[in-house]
Each structure stands twice: as structure tokens, then as C-alpha cells.
Amino acid sequence: MLPICSAFFASNCLLKNAIAPTNLAQSPNVSVEQDFCQGKRDYFNYKLNNALANFYQALRRNPNYADIYFYRGNSYVLLGNLPNAFANFNFLLRLKPDFPNAHLVYANRGSAYARSGNYRAAIADYTQSIKLNNSTPLVRENRGFANYFSGYPQAAIADFQAEARLFTFKFAQMMELIQAVQQKDESKLKTSWPIIAPNKRQEMKGC
């Protein structure tokens, strides 16, 4: 059973500052899928406020639509609104623990934690993401940075090495990061804590 905020009231109770369209009147001719598809279209075109407005409308029609919370969490991370990002990711994991892209939820919540400076929580989420899906690019790299900034350079090197082995196209980049860790070259150890987007072609099928 979901604590405190039910799915139906998630947009208002869970996310007090959710971005909503100016006109909340719903057209009977627009379906949840149409709102969601338009939101995804805006998301992939980086029109994030428009995307959030469409996601809001879609959730008013179906507040149990788990995928929308994933996209809304991603959007809030990219906009720098970390409290709302956490709220969406946390709610999604309670609403649907077996969410097919749970590994991406943990990975992107990890990046949200890292952006907030909570590297321990970030490492835990990156680790859970890897357990759920062992072959996702970027997760080990992000965990490597989190380990480094947590004061664990050897763990960081191990993550960068693993990323290089699994994704050979990143080999040179990872070797540079390893060298920077070994030489304690802070100028080369910088990251924006990127999140992992779902596959656009796959996600836009049927839209």
C-alpha cells in the first residue's frame, strides 16, 4: 500500500510545485496516450516545460501511468528541480516496483543525488542500477566519479576500467580519467552528472 499520498492525488499532494498548463480543462477528444506522446515529443526536443504540462494532463486522466513519472523525474533533473525529481522517482518505485526501466530510474535518481552532493546515496543507486542491468553505458562512469568525490580513488579507477572493458568506444576517455585519478589532476575530473535517456526511436513508436 502506498504511504500517505495515493496515486490519484500524486500531482497535487506529492508534487506541490508541479508544472501545470494554464488551462486545465480537458478535451474529451484527447487521450492519455496522446498527451503522453506529445509530452515525450517535447521531452526529446528539450522543451521540458511543455513536456511537463502534457505529462500533468496525462496523469489527470490516468494517475497510475508509471512511465509518465519516469519522464517527469528525468525532466525535473534536467531543469535542476531535484526535490520534484526525487518525488517522481520515489513514487514510481513504490507504484510499480517491477517497472521495466527500473535500472534507468535508479541510474537517474543516482545522478540527481550526485548533483545534490549526496555521493553515498548516488553510489547506492548506481550499484542497484548495475544489478538490474549490467550493460547500460554511463552508469559505471557516473559511479566512478561518485566514488572519486567520496574519497575512494581505487573504486573510481575500477569503475572506469569496467566501463572501458564493456564499452570499447569509451576506452580512450576512460584511460584519461584513470590517469587523472592517479595523478590527482582535478582539472580533468569534472562531470555534469548526465542522466540516461530512454531510446527515442523505441519510445516514440506508435506516436
Automatic annotation (TrEMBL):
Keywords: Repeat, TPR repeat. TPR repeats lie at residues 66-99, 103-136. Transmembrane segments: none annotated. The keyword Repeat applies. InterPro entries: TPR-like_helical_dom_sf, TPR_rpt, Ycf3. PANTHER family: TETRATRICOPEPTIDE REPEAT PROTEIN 6 (PTHR44858), UDP-N-ACETYLGLUCOSAMINE--PEPTIDE N-ACETYLGLUCOSAMINYLTRANSFERASE SPINDLY-RELATED (PTHR44858:SF1). This is Tetratricopeptide repeat protein. It comes from Floridaenema evergladense BLCC-F167. The lineage of its organism: Bacteria, Bacillati, Cyanobacteriota, Cyanophyceae, Oscillatoriophycideae.
